[in-house]
Structure to design on (180 residues):
């Protein structure tokens, strides 16, 4: 057990802290950052965990603010990290979405090429992209299912996989066009 300010970080105290500020954090994240509830909840849970880990590791021994202020500051930093990761991946995701939105995808040959590229991609990329794009898996779910350290590790791996898939698809599409 650790004492941080006036909070005893036992399991019970942590659970009480979690419930006490959850709804307010979710409303704050939705109003200030336009986050969906699931994303805000994931960030809130990560923030609670970070608060606990900071106290448990000795990094946090004394607070100069309220626990709520400290918790929301952690959340704000995690939200910023989420936005930064999204911006890095967004342009690649938009390119990858061409496979889903492009009218030419109705062409069975292009669809077959896209499926072929995904299967050639190999593991872990194939499974990660299928889980995210086809099954709608969240970053937290994928991290847990495939044993990644955290959601940021999943985002980083997904980013790399989308780049590889896009390059593979474009190179094969270019070869196909040269043959015609």
């Amino acid at each position: 057990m650790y004492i941080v300010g006036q909070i005893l970080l036992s399991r019970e105290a942590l659970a009480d802290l979690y419930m006490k500020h959850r709804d307010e954090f979710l409303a704050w994240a939705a109003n200030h950052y336009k986050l969906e509830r699931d994303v805000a909840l994931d960030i809130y849970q990560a923030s609670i965990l970070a608060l606990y880990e900071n106290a448990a590791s000795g990094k946090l021994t004394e607070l100069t603010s309220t626990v709520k202020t400290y918790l929301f500051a952690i959340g704000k930093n995690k939200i910023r990290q989420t936005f930064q990761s999204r911006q890095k991946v967004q342009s690649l995701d938009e390119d990858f979405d061409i496979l889903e939105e492009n009218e030419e995808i109705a062409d069975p040959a292009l669809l077959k090429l896209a499926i072929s590229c995904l299967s050639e991609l190999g593991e872990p990329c194939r499974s990660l992209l299928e889980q995210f794009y086809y099954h709608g898996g969240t970053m937290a779910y994928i991290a847990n299912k495939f044993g990644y350290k955290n959601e940021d590790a999943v985002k980083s791996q997904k980013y790399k996989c989308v780049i590889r898939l896009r390059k593979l698809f474009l190179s094969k599409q270019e070869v196909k066009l040269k043959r015609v």
